[in-house]
Fold each of these.
Amino acid sequence: MSEVNQVEKQGLDIMDIMQRIPHRFPMLLVDKIIEEEPMKRIVGIKNVTINEGFFQGHYPGHPIMPGVLIIEAMAQTLGVLILKEVPAGHVPYFTSIRSAKFRGPVRPGDQLRMEMEVDKVKGGGMMMTAIGKAYVDGKMICEAELMFAIIKL
């Protein structure tokens, strides 16, 4: 069975995700991986709940997920993909975010689906560009081009 089919069938749960990326509560913004094709494509899920700390102040009476955290959730989803392939002790750092567009709100109770595709890899795999899209109920709510450098800690 190919790796992409195996992940599609079984998925990666939160414990698997925490083995790959260094983020922890309250900054861990990916709950599950449902598709993965090594160094090409990954699809992650964030179940957005009213218990998220940012909803206390963004905005009282009209809670919406901050756009910067939607981008961060997309980046963490990509991190699950790329940190499997880079040497231990390395992490991805943003170098640029381009063409970010927000097309709708993410509210408590929504399931955020992040689809990330690696676009370019340079510097022996230590620099990369990815195209990301995020959806709620099949409607695209965010898209962006994310650039990263893989940095040794």
Amino acid sequence: MINEPRLLAELDAAVASVGFPVSGQAIEQAWDLTEEATPSEAFQERVRRAIGEVVPAGELLLLVTLRARRGREHDLVEASEAFVSASLQMPGVLGSTLYRSPADPMMLTLAERFAGRQALEQHMAADYFGRFQRIQGPLLAAPVEAIFYQRTVS
């Protein structure tokens, strides 16, 4: 059974550690979004609304850190590589690359570039995104960490 208050507290701590500008209410809304298995129209609308509240406009860089569960690192790399390949087919995705830490082989970083907020929204609403969210759960040893960066120079 999932201990939701503990998981939300861990998520709050992870968000605070990276300086991601998200309110407690947004964290709870994000938690509610994870309970839905397939991206319905209502899900996509909630994602668009959440993105509009916290994600800056313009070109975006998203760094996502994934920590593999021991013994499942190969599976996480394989699933992440499939995700990267699918992402690169989406209009507005300017880049998607997977990196593995040589100092910590359990740690993967996914670097994704988007033309703007709309491209990010379409990416998150795509079937491949939902599929990756479902697959990665049992492969992760810790919650995913994500940091957005906005391009400052044209």
